[in-house]
UniProtKB/TrEMBL annotation:
InterPro entries: CsbD (IPR008462), YjbJ_sf (IPR036629)
Residue span, CsbD-like domain: 5-56
Species: Lamprobacter modestohalophilus
Protein family per UniProt: Belongs to the UPF0337 (CsbD) family.
Pfam families, alphabetized: CsbD (PF05532)
Top-level taxonomic group: Bacteria
Protein name (Swiss-Prot/TrEMBL): General stress protein CsbD
Length: 58
């Protein structure tokens, strides 16, 4: 696992917490920020996955 994968999963988890907090408190802005952060984390982890795949196949 490389740094991008770890950081992406970390951001994904932080976003999920923000999203859940926003839902519980009725704060739509926080919920939206959490969704965006979660998706950005998924993308970052995906980039890390591709980098790892390339590294493993070289």
């Amino acid at each position: 696992m490389n740094k991008k994968q770890v950081k992406g999963h970390y951001e994904e988890a932080k976003g999920a917490v923000k999203e859940a907090t926003g839902k519980l408190t009725g704060n739509e802005e926080l919920e939206l920020k959490g969704k965006i952060q979660k998706e950005a984390g998924k993308i970052q982890a995906g980039v890390g996955d591709v980098q790892q795949e390339i590294k493993d196949n070289i």
